[in-house]
Every structure is written in structure tokens, then in C-alpha cells.
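Side project, low priority. Logging it here so it doesn't get lost.
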Amino acid sequence: MYKVGDVVVYRRDVCRVTGKKKSDFTGEMCYLLVPYNNTDNSITMQVPISNKAGHLRDLVTKDQIDELIQNAPGIETLESKPANMKSQYATLMKGGSLEDLVCIIKTSYLRNDERMKNHKKLASIDAEYLEKAENLLYSELSVAMNMSYDESKEFFEKEVALVEKKNKKARSAKKS
């Protein structure tokens, strides 16, 4: 049960619980949620307290962020099949995990990098989903870590790079 003032994630949006109200449509008790960056409270959503659909969850914790950073290098990318990239990305966007967002980001970076090396223009579908995934991931991390969006992005990318470097060094030492 959340209380007024709690910060939660509804679907993929970081929101603040502003109250509770009985729905005029269903008669069910609902949380009133305002998207976190909506400073004028012009948007309010009603989400059933029962959360039967499972779209409401706690904001990511610092421990979960650390775990995500440690796991990020091992998160697999999508199979690069241009014919169904949009549906693969869309499926991951519907999921609730931050790992899904990292998968989209990694896949988009790698596909765009490959296209640039082959002197091809960047795929608009990759750019679109990269932007969406980064926005959702870094928006949630910024609230959880009390940082700006840009600071959270820089922090996450730097920490993941350090983990990758450490893993690479460990693999090299193991081979010797």
C-alpha cells in the first residue's frame, strides 16, 4: 500500500502518489498519480489500488541500480533482423524491467555503430527506440539517485564502462 507523497512507477512513468479516490467508473479505490516531472499537476491518473494488472511498482532502489550496473555488460542484445526490429523493441518497451531498456539501448548503439562503420545512414527505428529507452531509464534513475537526467546518464554509462573494463581485465588474467 502506497501513501501520499510516495514515488512509484506506473507502467514506465515515474509518478508521485497525490491521494486516493473511489473511481467514478468502477467504484474501485484508486491511487491518484501525477507524473513526476509534471510540475503543474495538469495530468492526474487513477490507478486501482489492487494493481491487478501489475503496472504499478516501487521506484528502483540504489541497490537495484548497482545490480543493474553489474549485470548490464552481460545483458544480451536483440538479434539484428531489420524486418522485425520495431516489434522486438515494442515488446521490450511493454515489459516492466530496466534490463529490457538496457537491452534496447545496447542493441540500438551496436546497430547504429555497425551502420556507421559501413557508411550507411542510421536506422530511424533504432534512433526512435534508443531515445525512448534512454528517456525512461535515466528519468527513473535520476529520481532514485536524486540527480539530474544528464548526471544519471553519465553516472550509469561510466559505471557500466568500469564494470566492462574490470571484467575484461579478469578474463585476460584468467587466460594468462
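Brief comment: Strands lie at 7-10, 13-22, 29-35, 45-48, 56-58.
Revisit when time allows.
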